[in-house]
Amino acid sequence: MAKATGERALLVAITSGVTAMPDSLSLVVRQGDTFWSDHPAVKRNPEWFAPFTATHETPGTEARIEQATAAPGEKRGA
After folding, report:
1. Which end of the chain is more exposed for a tag (fewer CB within 10 A), N or C?
2. What 3-state class would DSSP assign to 47?
């Protein structure tokens, strides 16, 4: 798990499991679920989580997408 810095961090579950919650209910954690670092499930099972890293491209660097329809006066070719 990420080092405690006193700041809230977004974490991702790296494993699945079921954990008890303070209100006597159980919580199902699935691999890939995201939680804030101060969530009770993270505090009870820190080994289940790792820092979340976004994998999407930054604006302006995404691949160009072909226009799906022809503009007025244009014909779409095959």
Report:
1. C
2. helix
Residue with tokens 């700041």: 7
Tell me the pLDDT tens digit for each residue of 12-59: 999 999 999 988 899 999 999 999 999 999 999 999 999 999 887 666
Instruction: Using DSSP, state whether 46 is helix, strand or coil.
Output: helix
**Whether residue 1 has pLDDT greater than 50:** no
Structure tokens at 66: 């072909």
H helices of 1-78, where? 40-44
- Rounded Cα distance between 67 and 17, Å, is 44
Q: Is the model's pTM score more than 0.85?
A: no
- Please list, residue by residue across 30-69, b when 16 or more beta carbons sit within 10 angstroms of its beta carbon and e when fewer do: eeeeebebebebbeebeebbeebeeeeeeeeeeeeeeeee
